[in-house]
TrEMBL record:
Species of origin: Paraburkholderia madseniana
Cytochrome c domain segment(s): 40-120, 132-222
Parts forming coiled coils: none
Name of this chain's protein: C-type cytochrome
Keyword Disulfide bond: no
Residues engaged in binding heme c 1: 54, 57-58, 97
Family annotation (Pfam families): Cytochrom_C, Cytochrome_CBB3
Length: 223
């Protein structure tokens, strides 16, 4: 994992900012973050969570965590800013993020998005995935699986590095996050027929083996 030196750099670099946004920018967040945010409520409004809370959810410098905290580091700043703006407006679901993003100004959103877009910490360390899963995931990411499953990189760009504000970078995402996120999309597809070509529609075509393979490959692919 990333050492204390990187954590100290993060604290020093962001201390002057409102750091509420560091808790999220994705719909998956750890329970301890919600507890920490609630514990810091004040009479005048919600106090921005501490750097320690943010790092607990997303890893030092936004690297992500092996338990499923999504990676923020290196993502397109327009994508990060747009996601945070949606949390602020309540148009993207996340009880934690909607709470902590509520009082962020547009300039704070942009500053935080820019900061994370410039970070390049190592991939999170965990038990290495099975090589057979990585090989299968590479095939899925680059070539897809027949006419029903498009290649991941056809939308998320070569190497999974992301494509502007709409398609986020997916390379380097922790496997646990990828699995959980795809399952979320599948749950949405069961509630309402998804529009063709959306991530919800694509996820609905995947089986568990394909999800595990894609997650394994992306988790070991440098952004």
């Amino acid at each position: 994992m990333i050492g204390s030196r990187s954590v100290n750099m993060l604290r020093a670099g962001l201390r002057p900012l409102s750091v509420a946004a560091l808790v999220g920018l994705a719909s998956t967040c750890h329970a301890q973050s919600a507890v920490a945010v609630n514990a810091q409520d004040t009479a005048g409004g919600t106090k921005a969570p501490s750097i320690a809370t943010c790092v607990a959810c997303h890893g030092a410098l936004g690297a992500g965590t092996v338990t499923g905290g999504p990676r923020l580091a290196g993502k397109d700043p327009d994508y990060l800013a747009h996601a945070l703006s949606m949390f602020k407006a309540g148009t993207r679901a996340s009880a934690v993020m909607q709470t902590v993003a509520h009082n962020l100004s547009d300039s704070e959103i942009r500053e935080l998005a820019t900061f994370f877009s410039k970070q390049n910490p190592p991939l999170v360390e965990g038990a290495p995935p099975q090589q057979s899963l990585v090989v299968a995931g590479k095939q899925l990411a680059e070539m897809g699986a027949g006419s029903g499953v498009p290649a991941c990189f056809s939308c998320h760009a070569a190497g999974g590095k992301g494509n502007g504000a709409r398609f986020p970078g997916i390379a380097g995402e922790p496997a646990a996050f990828v699995v959980a996120r795809l399952h979320e999309f599948q749950a949405r597809a069961k509630e309402k027929t998804p529009a063709p070509g959306t991530m919800t529609a694509v996820a609905a075509t995947l089986n568990d083996a394909q999800i595990e393979a894609a997650a394994a490959y992306l988790s070991v692919t440098r952004p």
